[in-house]
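Researcher: I'm comparing several assemblies side by side, and this is the next one on my list. It has 792 residues spread over two chains. Same procedure as the others: predict the full complex and return the structure.
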Amino acid sequence: MAGDNPATTSGGVTQSRPERVPFYNDPKIRNLFYQVLLIAVVGFLVWGAATNMIENLRRARIASGFGFWYNTAGFDISQTLIEYSSQASTYGRAFWVGLLNTLLVAILGIIFATILGFIIGIARLSKNWLLARFASFYVETIRNLPLLLQLLFWYNAVLKALPDIRDSVAIWGGGYLNNRGLFLPQPLAKEGFAAVLVALAAGIGGAIIFRFWAKRRQLLTGQQAPVVLVGFGLIIVLPLIVFLLAGLPLEFAYPEKARFNIRGGVEVLPEFAALLLGLVIYTAAFIAEVVRAGILAVSHGQTEASYSLGLRPRPTLRLIIVPQAMRVIIPPLTSQYLNLTKNSTLAVAIGYPDLVQIFTGTVLNQTGQAVEVVAITMAVYLTISLTTSVAMNIFNARMALVER
Amino acid sequence: MTMSEGDLAVTEIRYLQKQPVDPLPPPRRLVGPIAWVRENLFSTWFNIAMTVFIGLLIFWIVPDLINFLFLDAVWTGNDREACLPSNLKREVGACWPFVWDRFSYFVYGSYPIPYRWRVDIFFGLLAIGVGWMLWLNAPRRDLGALYFFVVVPILSYVLLSGVPAIGLPHVDTNLWGGILVTIVVAWVGIVVSLPLGILLALGRRSPMPIVRTLSITFIEFVRGVPLITVLFMASVMLPLFVPEQYSPDKLLRALVGIALFASAYMAEVVRAGLAAIPKGQYEGAQAVGLGYWQMMRFIILPQALKVTIPNIVNTYIGLFKDTTLVFIVGIFDFLRAIEVARIDPKWAAPTTSTTGYAVAAIFYVIFCYGMSRYARATEERLAKGTKR
């Protein structure tokens, strides 16, 4: 603690014999003392908690350790992306199922929230008065409502209020919508579909190579190449042509409506739909604010300077404004992505089988091993958060303005 | 070039206009409602399309909303019969008698009816404290802080929980509910998180390595995990960490979880404020001989907290919204009260759920929007000194 002890600094000024500072006023010794004290207090608390815990667990006859990981789970999960059965699969398998469900909703949520958030953020800055007002109304309302309330609303008041199976709404293209979920045709690959995938991969690779080549040529000669157009052709049109040439190697398994249920097709659970809808709408409002702040952070002088150099509005936006705005936008945007991932744990309130619902819900109740289960769950989210923030630090270091 | 002025006068100057030009038409109107509409709504084709699109959206949503909330709504009744479309033979909007009937339940939960005056007094005391703190020109704000952070907590514990010795029978926290619990949770979070957050922020900037490491570990750990897992930890692990006879009750566990969570976020907000203070302020304080705590208390924190007031209020808004999560660990907050009331068979009607959620939405929007307006007003007020 600098400044704790003015005597040490004033000692040299007065030319008299330097006073000897009593040891308890020496900042070094004081710091050491405070830190030892802190360690002692924290250590005592941890030790007390640990001994109490061991005692309490022993009394409640709860096993400890991670042995339960290999025990049979014995409960069903309504949405499984990997093979899982209640009789044969272990708690460890249930963990992976939950983690994948969390990642599924988080990744889809991030994609849709980014799109919606950018649209609304830009709309809020629009010159169109009505559009700007509408966007800011959206942001102000959605940001001020708890996410949990929004999820419950979507799930209980909207999706559960849909007609039941017998009165399913048939939607265009052969799907059904009812209060048990959304049933869509399932695409099934026929032979020859592999060629389309190969074409897609080749197209993406080609587009990347073309972009590199175009950039180098521009640096060397100043000539520009139509990167977007060529990329579109390689990634979208090429696989489409292969798809047509191969004789449409794709068929759909249509859901069939029976008396009491719907068979076949892909089922989107109402829990999943409500969670995704709630997360996207909520996070988009925050992303919109991030985007708006980022665009406003680029001073108008940049636009004017660009115009005076002779750039037209579109290149100005693409080459001058967006790169500078992205520098401001990306760090808070990442933290919004993390928030979305963490908020996906609210799934537990509406029964979507994400990691928290499966693990800290069902597994915790069945095994009673609170410490291990909560520790594993926290470790997962902590890993995601810390990995992202390390990546962000590297990104920030690379993107930081190089100043004189 | 040897052209003199005389040559210039003789040469026929072809590029000069000989006849006066017709006057330009008057500019399009720049003021007035029509000009405003043209400028702001119909300036380009894209803008026209957007205006039409948003206009259609509004025409689609707003009448439905008004119908639901007012025109088709049921205003009186005693039970679900009043809100059933089959009885009324028309579209039914919001079922307001459900709200009138359940209103005291939403506010107090199952708090015993004869003692509800205690809750009312608690709300009153809290309102005085909040007003005192928020009104920046209020007299004796130091007393206000003492009142808000010390007197009200003690009084409200005495009032709400009860002390049989002075004639206030004990009311178990299991019976607390509704808005009462939401306010208690939010308020405990607010009162605890600020001092704890300041301490953690100072710890994070401390030169002592162990203090710094512990602060960073705590802050990053709590900020890295979702609030639900913190609440789960508080509700299932906290009882394991203490001897059985001291096992905290459910509400207290949730309060601990919320308070720790909010403190970690508050610490980062305060740290940003501390980082905004120029180094000269620290050095100046040291130069006049202030010790660490004096320097912080008189020089650094007043400036740092002042610039972070808007961010602190924003953290409080987040905290207020996050209090709904205690619902998941079984605490009877406002949202839970609505969840329980809306599935009550006495009021089971098609629009009961939506009505309940509408009430909750209005409640949260009023509180959070109020706080954010306050944050913005404070921000403008504080910016006055630096604005040119």
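Model: For your comparison table: The first helix of chain A runs from residue 6 to 10.
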